[in-house]
Amino acid sequence: MGDPLNDRVNAAEALGLVARAAGPYLDALPDLPVRDAAHAHLLDDLDGPLPESGDGAVAAVAELLRVGVPAATHSSGPRFFHLVVGGATPAAQAADWVVSLLDQAGGVWLSSPLAARAEAVVLRWLKELFGLPGGYGGVLTSGATLANLVGLACARSWWARQHGVDVVADGLAGLPRMPVFASGYLHSSTRKSLQVLGLGRDHVRTPTRDDAGRLDVAALDRELADAGPAVLVGTAGEVNAGDYDPLDEMADVARRHGAWLHVDGAFGLFAALSPRTAHLVRGVGRADSVAADGHKWLNAPYDSGFAFVRDRDLLARTFGNGLAPYLPEPDGESVNSNTLSPESARRARALPIWAALRAYGREGHRAMVERHLDLVLRLGRRIAESPDLELLAPITLFVVCFRYRPPGVPDDELDGLNRRLGEALVEDARVYAGTTVYRGVVALRPAIVNWRTTEPDVDLLVTVVRELGARLARRRSGGASG
Ligand SMILES: *Cc1c(COP(=O)(O)O)cnc(C)c1O
């Protein structure tokens, strides 16, 4: 086949293959197991020597569908409760195809006013959705990890300036270590951001008041008194049990000591959408920077995240390199997002978010959030009613932290049993859930965050956990007596 110039008439035909596969796949998705090990061998078909002349677009895409559809992890379906993984709402998923169709070179206004304008609009809409101040600068990222990095890079610029240093131009040389404070809820992605920024992964100070990692605000206040300019990281929604740092109190402490407050609200920022949970994020609008994900609770397709920074000039100073004089000057309408994040060129990441907000609005997203809150309460009730299940943390949001604890199994065997149960759940794949260590014990922590999930899916989680748990517990007692 060779040169794609000879193949171009087939682009629409290849897209048609994908479109024709979409209907049956999406119709089947609610009933598929999360993953089907029987199809794992298909992955070998991806492999082989580098093709010399090639098969052409239609054959290549047909092959990718033949392998990919059955071998994919169906995490976009309703029963992937592992990690925190959202699905893709119909509007967002279709708009993601538009991104591919139009193939915009986002990042610079002159190469895509469409991408730039859509990004400006969705950032404004998102600020309204979360009740954040309209004056915040913002940028779309690939996820909360990069959004945390954006916020912390701005914090670093601010902090260096307190020491009379322009870190963007001159780097960190000669500066002391930047003091960073957080609770035990700190997500590993913030440590990764600190390591990338040259601030050190292992020097976060964590004044906590219990083994769950809750913040000791009084101790934080004391430690800040002689820390000099410092950065606080608040977590809005931690991954083990969905709990929140007291953001409003952290904002008080930050103001008292002139510190920077960054909030990681990867999924937890969406608590602002419902009056039932809005109190959890009270004070977030006082933060200097805020990070969140689109591919979790917004149910935008991967990859999708966003960062907001109170001082929009600082954001542009931190990421603009001033080294490409052929680029236009940024102004209100013609934003160059390549000056606002570590990325330069990127896809038109705003379009799926735009379509989701246009399609479902504030009301629709609130309804989705509240459905998840209801489903989680249902799951909590089912756990409370089951004599062999034990809830380990209060339910705050959409994460339920619990373990399998059948009568008669000694305490010191429960960690091993639950760890094997986590592995068995993934192998079984009717539902996916994984384990964590919470307050020193191995626990399951399903997160219900997919727009497709309904009551039977949650009930099946309980059924499968108890069924597999009982089998493992029997095997254990069989082993003990045999
Ligand atoms: C998921 C998550 C992140 C990282 O987000 P990515 O989308 O994986 O980059 C950061 N913080 C918290 C609290 C998270 O749950």
Please describe the structure with a list of short key phrases separated by commas or semicolons.
single chain, 482 residues, alpha/beta, Aspartate Aminotransferase, domain 2, Aspartate Aminotransferase, domain 1, 3 domains, 6-stranded mixed beta sheet, two-stranded antiparallel ribbon, binds pyridoxal-5'-phosphate
What would you note in describing this structure?
Belongs to the group II decarboxylase family. InterPro entries: Aromatic_deC, PyrdxlP-dep_de-COase, PyrdxlP-dep_Trfase, PyrdxlP-dep_Trfase_major, PyrdxlP-dep_Trfase_small. With 482 residues, this protein is α/β, with parallel strands linked by helices. The protein folds into 3 domains: 70 residues; 264 residues, Aspartate Aminotransferase, domain 2 (3-Layer(aba) Sandwich), CATH 3.40.640; 119 residues, Aspartate Aminotransferase, domain 1. The protein has 13 helices and 10 strands. α1 runs parallel beside α2 and α5 crosses α7. It is globular, with a radius of gyration of 24 Å. The model has no long low-confidence stretch (mean pLDDT 95). The structure holds pyridoxal-5'-phosphate. Pyridoxal-5'-phosphate binds next to α5.
Brief description of this entry?
With 482 residues, the chain is α/β, with parallel strands linked by helices.
CATH architecture of the largest domain: 3-Layer(aba) Sandwich
The total count of helices amounts to: 13
Which range does the strand content fall in? 5-15%
Tell me about the largest β-sheet.
6 strands, mixed
CATH class of the largest domain: Alpha Beta
**Into which percent range does the helicity of residues fall?**
40-55%
SSE order: HHHHEHHEHHEHEEEHHEEHEEH
Rounded average pLDDT: 95
How do the strands line up in the largest sheet? 1-6-5-4-3-2
Under CATH, the topology of the largest domain is which? Answer: Aspartate Aminotransferase, domain 2
Sheet/helix structural class? alpha/beta
Instruction: Compute the CA-based radius of gyration.
Output: 24 Å
The CATH homologous superfamily of the largest domain is named: Type I PLP-dependent aspartate aminotransferase-like (Major domain)
- Oligomeric grouping of the chains: single chain
Morphology = globular
What is the strand tally? Answer: 10
Domain tally: 3
First-to-last CA distance: 64 Å
Q: What ligands can be seen in this structure? A: pyridoxal-5'-phosphate
The low-confidence runs, each spanning 5 or more residues with pLDDT under 50, are none
